[in-house]
Amino acid sequence: MRIDILSAVPSLLESPFSHSIMRRAQEKGILEIHSHDIRDYSNHKQKSIDDYQFGGGAGMVLMIEPIVAAIEKLQSERQYDEIIYLTPDGTQLKQSICNQLSLKNNLLLICGHYKGIDQRIREHFITMEISIGDYVLSGGELAAAVLVDAIGRLIPQVLNDETSALFDSFQDNLLAPPVYTRPAEFRGWKVPDILLSGHTQKIEEWRDEQSFLRTQARRPDLLK
Ligand code: ADE
Predict the structure, then answer these.
(1) Cα 58 to the chain's mean position, in Å?
(2) DSSP-derived 3-state class of residue 180
(3) Which of 21, 30, 50, 175 could form a disulfide with 169 if both were Cys (CB 3.0 to 4.6 A apart)?
(4) Whole-number Å distance between alpha carbons of 33 and 214
(5) In this structure, which residue's CA is closest to atom 2 in ligand 1?
(6) What is the number of the ligand 1 atom nearest to the C-alpha of 136?
(7) Which residues sit with their C-beta closer than 6 Å to ligand 1?
(8) Structure pTM?
(9) Residue 212, CA atoms < 13 Å, CB-side half-sphere
């Protein structure tokens, strides 16, 4: 999979993909991530990319020309399955959306900044709008990093133990069960006996039950 990200602050996107699972996915050649600076597509002398909003009001808006120039340059090189704008008024991100997107070949993500991007870009180029939650970030970059991480780890062969993504929280509308590691006892706090029993089927049943109880207690909405 290839993911291109258009941003006014591409340096914000360096660290999230340089470590751990995201780094290994790129090293294995399973995932390619390319960040692009919107400023590189500005025709202005000062390389400006934003302007005051028509109608007045506080806050700058990212201009249409540099973003469209960048989108069209990238589109001339490959066909994108989705062009996604990260915005607090988009569809709220869910595991099911991540599952669908992990099957695509080419994604283009657009990060807003300040007040956002000119509405005409959203109407004529964007195919999906995604929010990572009901709060406002100063730009779409951290949201893009969340989206890429959530999608990237689902691509087959990215996780060493391929099955582990299948048992993540939300994969079947249930939260994940509790997990423990050594030592089996710490300050008198013991790991549940069942997990030390070696009885695979009973352990599986215990985990299913814990998943259900945890979901019922914390996120009953998921069970509806
Ligand atoms: N940009 C600013 N806030 C955001 C959010 N909550 N989700 C996605 N993009 C955003």
Answers:
(1) 29
(2) coil
(3) 175
(4) 36
(5) 137
(6) 3
(7) 86-88, 112, 131-133, 135-137, 140, 143
(8) 0.95
(9) 6
CA dist 207 → 31, 99, 159, 199 (Å) = 32, 23, 21, 12
Contact 151, 109 (CB under 8 A): no
Amino acid present at 22? M
What fold does the segment set 169-223 form as a domain? Trp Operon Repressor; Chain A (1.10.1270)
Kindly state the tokens that stand for 190.
Answer: 């013991």
Residue to substitute in 61, 115, 131 for testing ligand 1 pocket (most ligand atoms within 8 angstroms of CB): 131
Find the 221 Cα to ligand 1 centroid distance in Å: 23
Closest CA to 36 of 110, 136, 143, 144: 110
Topology given in CATH for the domain delimited by 2-152: Alpha/beta knot (3.40.1280)
Q: Where in the chain are the domains? A: 2-152, 169-223
For residues 13 and 145, the answer to whether their CB atoms sit within 8 Å is: yes
pLDDT digits (tens, 9 = 90+) for 24-79: 999 999 999 999 999 999 999 999 999 999 999 999 999 999 999 999 999 999 99
- What is the token pair recorded at 191? 């790991």
> What residue owns the CA closest to ligand 1's atom 6?
88
Mean pLDDT over all residues of the chain?
96
Quick: pLDDT tens for 152-194: 999 988 887 656 787 788 888 999 999 999 999 999 999 999 9
Closest alpha carbon to 87 in 52, 62, 53: 62
Whether 144 and 9 have beta carbons less than 8 Å apart is answered as: no
C-beta of residue 147 within 8 angstroms of C-beta of residue 117: no
Owner of token pair 């806050």: 59
